[in-house]
Amino acid sequence: xxxxxxxxxxxxxxxxxxxxxxxxxxxxxxxxxxxxxxxxxxxxxxxxxxxxxxxxxxxxxxxxxxxxxxxxxxxxxxxxxxxxxxxxxxxxxxxxxxxxxxxxxxxxxxxxxxxxxxxxxxxxxxxxxxxxxxxxxxxxxxxxxxxxxxxxxxxxxxxxxxxxxxxxxxxxxxxxxxxxxxxxxxxxxxxxxxxxxxxxxxxxxxxxxxxxxxxxxxxxxxxxxxxxxxxxxxxxxxxxxxxxxxxxxxxxxxxxxxxxxxxxxxxxxxxxxxxxxxxxxxxxxxxxxxxxxxxxxxxxxxxxxxxxxxxxxxxxxxxxxxxxxxxxxxxxxxxxxxxxxxxxxxxxxxxxxxxxxxxxxxxxxxxxxxxxxxxxxxxxxxxxxxxxxxxxxxxxxxxxxxxxxxxxxxxxxxxxxxxxxxxxxxxxxxxxxxxxxxxxxxxxxxxxxxxxxxxxxxxxxxxxxxxxxxxxxxxxxxxxxxxxxxxxxxxxxxxxxxxxxxxxxxxxxxxxxxxxxxxxxxxxxxxxxxxxxxxxxxxxxxxxxxxxxxxxxxxxxxxxxxxxxxxxxxxxxxxxxxxxxxxxxxxxxxxxxxxxxxxxxxxxxxxxxxxxxxxxxxxxxxxxxxxxxxxxxxxxxxxxxxxxxxxxxxxxxxxxxxxxxxxxxxxxxxxxxxxxxxxxxxxxxxxxxxxxxxxxxxxxxxxxxxxxxxxxxxxxxxxxxxxxxxxxxxxxxxxxxxxxxxxxxxxxxxxxxxxxxxxxxxxxxxxxxxxxxxxxxxxxxxxxxxxxxxxxxxxxxxxxxxxxxxxxxxxxxxxxxxx
Length: 819
Ligand SMILES: *[C@@H]1O[C@H](CO)[C@@H](O)[C@H](O)[C@H]1NC(C)=O
Ligand SMILES: *[C@@H]1O[C@H](CO)[C@@H](O)[C@H](O)[C@H]1NC(C)=O
Ligand SMILES: *[C@@H]1O[C@H](CO)[C@@H](O)[C@H](O)[C@H]1NC(C)=O
Known about the structure:
CATH class of the largest domain: Mainly Beta
Number of domains: 8
Strand order of the largest sheet: 1-7-6-3
CATH architecture of the largest domain: Sandwich
Distance between the termini: 217 Å
CATH superfamily of the largest domain: Cadherins
Bound molecules: 2-acetamido-2-deoxy-beta-D-glucopyranose
Strand content: 35-45%
Shape: rod-shaped
Oligomer: single chain
């Protein structure tokens, strides 16, 4: 801050004044004083220097004259000293003028004398160098080459010479130094020199201090804060944080998921670190599946991944910054398998039906099993339910054969739905099931079977012809033709009757019809076999035995065996002695009924008697006994009508007339008879016929006696060989025999009674022991089997020749009586 301008003007004024004063004064006084001294600084002794008396000073009107300017000095009139009236700043008064001279005059008024006074103000270092701003900002790009110069602010120091600015210093640093230059007018100025390249990425700014100093004593300095800001240059390429990105993704991740995030860094800043990602060397397919967000570097799934389609994708990733710099990286995406495919079961061949007799191991189907997954996920196990008679066998590779493993039976299961399940080993595992329907074809493996092993049926005799007798039903679990049953009667156990004339069977329905009206008295039971045969090929059959019992109906009237109905006109005569006691057994009516049971249960009753009350008849025995002693008035010949009735519904009956003659002996009886016969036979020529008859009968008797004797002897010998038994009845059903044996029993007991009564009357009547035979009971000899007989007696009767005599006598006697 100088006052050049002012100095020039003042100089011109001074010149004018000086010219005037020069004309007046002779000399000039010189003083010197430093600037910035305190007020009252003693500049010089004016009185002494002007050779003036101290006391004269005030009287002579001495004063300082300064042409229009500030009066810096004043006079002390008492001492004659001149002193400064104020602090004087040289820089203020003189600026950069080298010699700062203050000229003024001292005028002595009374003597009209002017004295020139020159005071030189000397410089002191009272000003420090100063920058016009304390801070300075410098922006330098990091790419600026070394040696570049950057101007700095200049410092100013108003002092002079050594007190003025001498130079600059820069604070210590690594990159910069000062370059000093001098202007044409000799001023020094400093420039900042870049000695070492800048790197924003290391240091973004540098703080320097520029110090300006002068040469005064003491040294004064001024400082400038230089803030160097390093500007970014795109000197760093972006760098991926991985040279290769390898990721594994499951094939089933959802669309929109982030597969991998690329990350690159760029040390630069601003636009230089604005990164853009891109994918290169990518297949068209992959570019549809993967989408790269160019700003974030995220690779996002945009399509469906399928391990089965492609297991890995490889591409190149690039990143570019705002400039031309870029980096490359490799991205490899491995697709891992997920069990997303269920196994497939493909039936390559199959049959729909198998016969039930197929042996185990018969192939039903050939299957191929596939799974599009890999490793464990593609390991497939096939199975069929254990409860089915099938199994899977591996044949070749992933081919399975479905075969039977047991015997099949259509009668148990006719169709199978074979479920084949294929399961893979993934987690979780997937499975597929298919159903193979299989029809089991029938084989005629079951014969028709009757529910019972034998059947019994009953049919009342005298049935209608064509009546259905019985129904049979056999079951055949086979199917259709194999279950169509034909019935037939195959065998009769009655060899002599052709069964086909008796019974027929409806071959379809199994109903048995009677072809004839059966007669219980002819057939009591019929045994036959019924065969059921199915329609299979070969056909199977079974048979069952059927017994048809004919039930009795009361269709037979009782038949009276004894006394026999006379065929030759004569009637049987029973003998009863006069002396008979009450209860004497006169005779026994013997009747049989061909029916059986109740229908053959006979009862006897007296219908009519000559002398009612004289005889009684046992209700069931048929024995006719006397009820009282005979009286003389009783007729010698008693006639009894006996009714024999069975117990059937309705009952059937027969009657017989029994003639009882009251006589003690045969001759008597004969005379009695003749006497009795007379009225009975009113014919006049009866005696003649009688004589002829007696003679004829006698002759006949003798012949008969001889024949009988011979017969008896033969039979007796035979009976010795094989004792009498049921053997002779072997051909006849026992039940048929019951009636006859019953009659025999009656006859035996009758004969026994008869012989006893004859014995008791000392009669020689006795029946020899005879064998049973098919001769009529009335003609049978009586068997004597009496507990009351002694062994001796029995012996006598058995095989004794006397016995035969007795027997003959008996017969003779009987004949006699009959006559
Ligand atoms: C200024 O300083 C220089 C060196 O410091 C010295 O040689 C010179 O004499 C000095 N000048 C004055 C006028 O003091
Ligand atoms: C087999 O499957 C068919 C069709 O689903 C069905 O009609 C039939 O009843 C099934 N048979 C068996 C034995 O389960
Ligand atoms: C009847 O069946 C049995 C076994 O069931 C058999 O032994 C017999 O031969 C068959 N009879 C006829 C006549 O077929």
